Amino acid sequence: MTGYDWVILCTIFIYMIMMVAIGFAVSGRNKTSDDFYLGGRKLGPLVTAMSAEASDMSGWLLMGLPAVAMMGGLAEASWTAIGLAIGTYLNWLFVAKRLRVYSNRIGAFTLPDFFTQRFGDKAKVMTTIAALFIIVFFVPYTASGFAACGKLFGSLFGMDYHLAMILSAIVIIVYCTLGGFFAASTTDFIQSIIMTVALIVVVGFGEGIAGGFSNIFSNVKGLDGYLDLFKGFNVATGTTGSYGTLPVISTLAWGLGYFGMPHILLRFMAIEDEKKLKLSRRVASIWVVISMGVAVLIGVVGYTLMQKGVLPQYADASAAETIIVDISKFLSKYGYVSALGAGIILAGILASTMSTADSQLLAASSSISQNLLQETFGIKMSNKVSMWVARISVVAISVVAIFLAWNPNSSVFRIVSFAWAGFGGAFGPVMLCALFWKRTTKQGAIAGMISGGLVVFIYKWLRDGFTFGDKLTGAFIDGTIFDIYELLPAFVIGIAVIFVVSLLTKKPEDEITNTFDEVKALCKTK
Questions:
Q1: Distance of CA 506 to the CA centre of its chain
Q2: Residue ranges per domain, the chain?
Q3: In 91-160, which ranges are continuous DSSP H helix?
Q4: Beta-sheet pairing, 239-240 with 467-468
Q5: How far apart, in Å, are the Cα atoms of 413 and each of 8, 59, 140?
Q6: How far, in Å, CA of 142 to CA of 151, rounded?
Q7: Contact 340, 201 (CB under 8 A)
Q8: Which of 37, 135, 379, 389 is 20 to 30 Å from 524 at the Cα level?
Q9: Average pLDDT of 290-315?
Q10: Alpha-carbon span 336 to 338, nearest angstrom
Q11: Per-residue pLDDT tens digits for 392-429
Q12: Cα separation, 170 vs 141, whole angstroms
């Protein structure tokens, strides 16, 4: 490796040491499993806001979104960003405060536990179903994060993919097992800052190399549809497309996923004071809008850099996901200071991946150690034993995720898209009804959760295609009204099932409805 490569490597190494140090520093705060999985409900407003958004965005922000904008124009990238921005704001506005008050009132500190206590499910059926969904979607989701880390180091330094992936996983495991939720939230807060710096450095450097924004936009103006929100231009094929009402609605539906994301909802439950959620909402919403706007702009800048030969000629959006990595490589050639900047950029990509993986890891481990072992199977544990079981669960899930990520050719973003739809479809409708519709019954919530989760599986199966006669099922769906993101039908069906089944079953008991009214009143007065 060159001297510049060593500067980059040292920058990333220092960043990883910082994350582990935070785990050590906050490890003493974990006295109970409540502390380990929810930080004792002591998060400040800034940490709540930025850790929630950092754990949300993942590598998609720094890799996926710029690539989509670069190779397909503004249509898909912009509508996706708009949908996520709207979903972020509405989630903070409507769900955050009521979930914080409700979960504190009933003493719930995991999402399955909240559903079970909210609906008075003494048989723990909801706990089991919700925990299984979390494990099914989060373990491979975590694996995709490990894989992204392995690919990053492998492409940069020629390291063996498996070694790089395992080393990255070990760092995440260490600070998660030591510091739990508080360590994950604190590191996510720092990681959000690093991600922000990386975005600013990339767009600033790219703009300078490309000859200014006037030159950048004059280059893409000649591409019919590239800057049109209802067309789009395929850079790889040189063709103009059409982005009509159905694709726009389908893309905006990404925002619905927020209502069911366990790692985001847990941040709402963990803030120290619900009165501070307004500040958190403002900080989170502003950061999301700015960061996604800059990411889309990086994609537009990337087109000019590709034309100038600074970036390689990418075959498609998937290949272009390395755009920021390639820009950082080019930046590192300008001297040691530039190499330091490149190291910060790459640390930002690593931070975006790790900030999601740690939150997913804790949510999945809580489903095993707390929800399944203690609540479903009724295994009694002392606080000390419960803490050890929680940490062992983190390690066990990480080992499974490492095996799932063993194939270096595994797709990262297809897994992210599927898991996002899964949580949004299974938990989103139930969460909204649990918080805002008193008539929701236990049977309705269970039916809605199962139907929403299953629709995601079935729809994805149909969209990907299986042989039906002499055609693939995907051929029957392409170009029709059913050619949409699977989250949308799953969410709609989940809501419909909850309403129908709830109205057909006996009203909730007075104890449950009285608690609902009490929480509603508390939210109005606070």
A1: 37
A2: 11-324+340-407
A3: 97-106, 111-118, 125-157
A4: unpaired
A5: 26, 9, 11
A6: 14
A7: no
A8: 37
A9: 92
A10: 5
A11: 888 888 888 888 788 776 655 567 778 889 999 999 99
A12: 17
Alpha-carbon distance of 204 to 419, in angstroms, equals 33
For residue 507, give every residue at least 6 positions away whose Cβ sits within 8 Å of its Cβ, in sequence order, or none: 439, 441, 513
Q: What is the 3-state secondary structure (H, E, C) of 177-230?
A: HHHHHHHHHHHHHHHHHHHHHHHHHHHHHHHHHHCCHHHHHHHHHCCCCCCCCC
CA–CA distance, 176 with 171 (Å, rounded to integer): 9
Any idea how long the chain is?
Answer: 526
What region does 504 belong to: left with phi over 0, alpha with psi -120 to 50, or beta? alpha
Residue 272, classed as helix, strand or coil, is coil
Rounded Cα distance between 262 and 241, Å, is 36
The whole-number pLDDT of residue 468 equals 42
Give yes or no for a contact between 235 and 317, defined as CB atoms under 8 angstroms apart.
no
Tokens standing for residue 288 = 């999301």
Q: Work out the angle at residue 396's Cα, subtended by the Cα atoms of residues 393 and 402, and round it to the nearest 5 degrees.
A: 140
Please state, in angstroms and rounded to a whole number, the distance separating the CA atoms of residues 118 and 265: 15
Give first-to-last CA distance, the chain, whole Å: 58
| Parallel/antiparallel/unpaired status of strands 233-234 and 239-240 | antiparallel
Based on its alpha-carbon atoms, the radius of gyration of the chain, rounded to whole angstroms, reads 23
The per-residue pLDDT for range 356-393, each reduced to its tens digit, is: 777 777 777 778 877 888 777 778 877 778 778 877 88
Residue labelled with tokens 């936009």: 217
Q: Which are the contacts of 356, defined by CB distance < 8 A and separation ≥ 6?
A: 54, 55, 56, 57, 58, 59, 141, 145, 263
Integer Cα distance of 323 and 306 in angstroms: 10
- pLDDT, tens digit, 9 for 90 and up, residues 457-478: 888 777 766 544 444 555 566 6
Between CA 386 and CA 366 the distance in angstroms is 11
Is residue 238 left, alpha or beta, with left meaning phi > 0 and alpha meaning psi from -120 to 50? left
**CATH code of the domain made up of 11-324+340-407:** 1.20.1730.10
Angle at 234 between CA 196 and CA 288, to 5 degrees: 20
Question: What burial letters (b/e) apply to 165-203, b meaning 16+ CB within 10 Å?
Answer: bbebbebbbbbbbbbbbbbbbbbbbbbbebbbbbbbbbb
271 DSSP β-pair partners: 43
| Exposure b/e, 268-283, CB count within 10 A at least 16 = b | bbbbbebebbeebbeb
Residues 381 and 378: their CA atoms lie apart, in Å, by 9
Amino acid at 151: K
pLDDT for the residue 32 = 66
Both structure tokens of 138: 């989060």
CA distances from 359 to 150, 181, 353 (A): 19, 8, 11
Q: State pLDDT tens for residues 237-259.
A: 888 888 888 889 989 999 999 99
Alpha carbon dihedral 469, 475, 480, 485, in 10-degree steps, equals 110
> pLDDT: is 478 or 214 the higher one?
214
